[in-house]
Amino acid sequence: MNFKRPKTIKTGLDITPLIDVVFILLLFFMLTSNFIVENGLELNLPKSTTADEQTQNTQNNLVIFIDQSQHIFVGENQYNFSELNRLLLKKETAGDLALVTLKADEKVPVGFMIQVMDVVRKINGEKMVISTEKLAGGVNETQ
């Protein structure tokens, strides 16, 4: 005998379109986001309770790093004072120098930092920022 079987109703949720939409959204956000990568130089910045976050146009800004061994870096390249002077002069004449940020290790002698600041101020005037880390409390009193 040939009995007819009752038709079974498919009771499931097809998530294939959902996976496609999530993948496309992930791809969209990955392609449109900006990744800000700090240089890999390990610095212990000086601490300050009055440090402010700087919102800057990073296109025309120059960041100068000074490590605890008193080496001057711009990006991944190491410079001496005369090379730094030439680099700043070249960027200033090209109009590519809006602001100079100085990031120096807390163990760098003040005299060395002043020498670097003098080189920057000769070319770029007063448009310079010294970077610090913000302390999470009150005033840092060490006596």
UniProtKB/TrEMBL annotation:
InterPro entries: ExbD. It comes from the Bacteria. One of its GO terms (cellular component) is plasma membrane. Pfam families: ExbD. It is a single-pass membrane protein; Single-pass type II membrane protein. One of its GO terms (molecular function) is transmembrane transporter activity. The keyword Transcription does not apply. It is found in: Cell membrane. Coiled coil: none annotated. This is Biopolymer transport protein ExbD.
